[in-house]
Design brief:
four-stranded antiparallel sheet, about 10% helix, about 25% strand
């Protein structure tokens, strides 16, 4: 029987199989793990806007508790620019990564 009638083994693609790199999703926000802007967000629920992290259109995540201000760079997530995300959500997402 000819060799090409049998299926290819499942051990992986052949060495000459060049797959294109996937394009980054514009909706996924990528942040270096050493930056934790949610630590600077306020815990005061009487000022809800300060309990979140702002996604700046210029490529920064910005948070404050009125005593300190932090702005850290991010990549991707250009469709999310202008949103204020709760710091608790980012904290959980970082914990689950």
């Amino acid at each position: 029987m000819p060799e090409d009638t049998f299926p290819r083994p499942l051990s992986g693609p052949p060495p000459n199989d060049k797959r294109p790199e996937p394009e980054p999703d514009p909706d996924i926000l990528l942040l270096d793990a050493k930056f934790k802007p949610w630590l600077c967000a306020s815990d005061d629920e009487t000022r809800p806007i300060l309990t979140g992290v702002y996604i700046d259109p210029d490529g920064f995540l910005v948070a404050t508790d009125t005593m300190c201000l932090i702005a850290v760079p991010y990549t991707g997530g250009k469709n999310l620019a202008g949103l204020n995300i709760p710091a608790a959500f980012l904290r959980e997402a970082h914990r689950l990564r």
